[in-house]
Specification:
Elements lengths: L1 H10 L14 H10 L13 E3 L1 H13 L5 E6 L3 H9 L3 E8 L3 E2 L1 H10 L3 E6 L13 H14 L2 E5 L22 E6 L11 E4 L4 H12 L4 H12 L2 H27 L5 E3 L6 E5 L6 H10 L5 E2 L12 E5 L6 H19 L2
Parallel strand pairs: 2-3, 2-5, 5-6, 6-7
Antiparallel strand pairs: 1-8, 3-4, 7-8, 9-10, 10-12, 11-12
Helix pairs in contact: 1-8, 2-8, 3-4, 3-7
Length: 348
């Protein structure tokens, strides 16, 4: 990416002074339309709007389909950033039970929807849900879309992690024939964390989303878009993703083995089919918040389960990052977690 940027600036130095297209650079939207075929989605570049990361895509999507005071169904547990976003928009999170193996419960969603008259949208991460790492079966994805159609709910699909799945997965958007699904994604987790470039395909809400994006932050700057467009057009993304998936698979296995060796009896985890994270259930009676505080004093960071819900139901879970190579520092950190857990169990 750095080489692409250097060459691009030498070849087109005027790009820094070029007025951006409100929808985003056409070349990038064309490349992203081709990339969407991996999820079996057929999109015309005119259906895409480039955003400042997936978070902005989710923000404009929610603003397009809700008003303050409305309820939005989310997976439980869910990414804490989504809970923060909903609160900032004056929206209420309706938490729906979610399995580490099959994702959001469509049956629980239907029951909750029947009791919530102001439910307007569902936000779902069907492929490598954060923090669980769940992948919804295709039948469940189709059932969720059918439920949203029946109840006239907007279905906002966050596809940020899908390219990290060990095997290709279909997006819910691929079954959408009515514009019901608002598809949001980015390359932040898969290619360049320092480049906040996301995109949204908003279906029937596209005109509204274009207005909201322009009012909220104006178009993205051109240089980053042009660099990504050239990189994607060069065909290097497939090789990069194959290497990244293999690396993450090894790191997840190494992390799981180390956790099994160091954490006390009663600790459980499920191995996700891709991605950088592990969702770990602590032995009964251990508080993730207490462990977080104790670990932070030792210089060890983890995601306490309380972050991923507005309730305390996940206080005995933690999210562990396996996105970095296993080295001696990682092993010492895991050993420290094991010692802290053992000490906390003895002190109960």
């Amino acid at each position: 990416l750095a080489l692409h940027g250097q060459r691009l600036l030498r070849r087109r130095p005027e790009i820094l002074g070029t007025q951006p297209d409100p929808q985003g650079l056409l070349g990038l939207r064309q490349a992203l339309s081709r990339l969407a075929l991996n999820a079996q989605i057929q999109l015309d570049p005119s259906q895409l709007v480039i955003t400042h990361g997936c978070t902005e895509a989710l923000s404009v999507a929610l603003r397009a389909v809700t008003t303050p005071g409305d309820a939005v169904a989310v997976e439980s547990p869910t990414y804490y950033g989504l809970l923060q976003l909903l609160e900032s928009l004056g929206l209420r999170a309706l938490e729906i039970p979610t399995s580490p193996h099959t994702g959001l419960s469509v049956e629980a969603l239907e029951a909750a929807a029947a009791q919530e008259p102001r439910l307007k949208a569902v936000v779902v991460v069907p492929n490598l849900q954060n923090p669980l790492g769940a992948v919804m079966p295709d039948t469940a994805k189709q059932a969720l879309l059918a439920r949203c159609e029946a109840r006239d709910l907007a279905l906002i699909e966050d596809d940020t992690y899908a390219l990290l799945c060990d095997t290709p997965q279909r997006a819910i958007k691929s079954w959408d024939t009515t514009g019901r699904v608002i598809f949001c994604s980015s390359l932040h987790k898969t290619l360049a964390p320092g480049m906040r470039v996301g995109w949204i395909a908003a279906g029937r809400w596209q005109p509204r989303v274009e207005i909201l994006k322009y009012a909220q932050s104006r178009p993205n700057e051109m240089l980053g878009q042009a660099i990504l467009a050239e990189f994607l057009a060069g065909g290097q993304i497939d090789r990069h993703l194959r290497a990244l998936r293999a690396k993450l698979a090894t790191q997840r296995e190494q992390m799981a083995a180390a956790l099994s060796d160091e954490l006390p009896t009663g600790t459980r985890l499920s191995m996700p089919p891709g991605g950088p994270s592990l969702w770990v259930e602590l032995p009964e009676g251990l508080s993730s918040l207490a462990l977080f505080d104790a670990a932070l004093e030792k210089g060890v960071r983890l995601g306490p389960g309380l972050m991923y819900s507005n309730s305390d139901r996940f206080d005995n879970f933690v999210r562990i990052n396996a996105g970095n190579p296993m080295d001696e520092a990682q092993r010492r950190a895991i050993a420290t977690l094991g010692q802290l857990c053992a000490s906390m169990l003895r002190g109960r």
